[in-house]
């Protein structure tokens, strides 16, 4: 009887070790095995409250997030290409290395957002606010920044603006300029 009990305990311990090893392989906060999570959010999510959410690496392409709240959210390396963000609030969000290729972001607020190395190629940023946003090395190629407020954007260079277009209402830091759209 004692032998059967010992065998049962050893078998349970072995199963527990195997289960813990498998669970640890999916645990993204330590160890040598790391699985990158890439949640997918799509469709229509207008006026959604996604504030403070961790959406690192999320796939959000071809979706509608108009008037949604992303304040204080983490969207590092997310792909939001071809999506709608009209009037969305990205205040203090981490958008480092996000893909906003051909995204529509009119009237969006990027105030105090971290957008370093973001890809906004072909995006519509008309009348968006970038007050105190970090746009260091952000790609503005073929982006429309008509009426956007970039006066207090950090890391903005003339080279970035040379690839974008704007209008007479576009607000830029002193000494920088942008070509007219059209």
Report on the architecture of this protein.
The protein contains 2 helices and 2 strands. Residues 14-38 have low confidence and may be disordered. The chain is globular, with a radius of gyration of 23 Å. With 182 residues, it is an all-alpha fold. Helices cover 16% and strands 2% of the residues. Strands 1-2 form a two-stranded parallel ribbon. The longest helix is centred in the first third of the chain and has 24 residues, at 2-25.
Keywords:
182 residues, two-stranded parallel ribbon
List the helices and strands and how they pair.
Blueprint lengths: L1 H24 L132 H5 L2 E2 L12 E2 L2
Parallel strand pairs: 1-2
**Shape verdict:** globular
| Helix/sheet category | mainly alpha
- Supply Rg: 23 Å
Order of helices and strands: HHEE
Distance, first to last CA: 87 Å
Instruction: Please count the beta strands (DSSP E, at least 2 residues each).
Output: 2
The total of helices stands at: 2
Mean pLDDT: 85
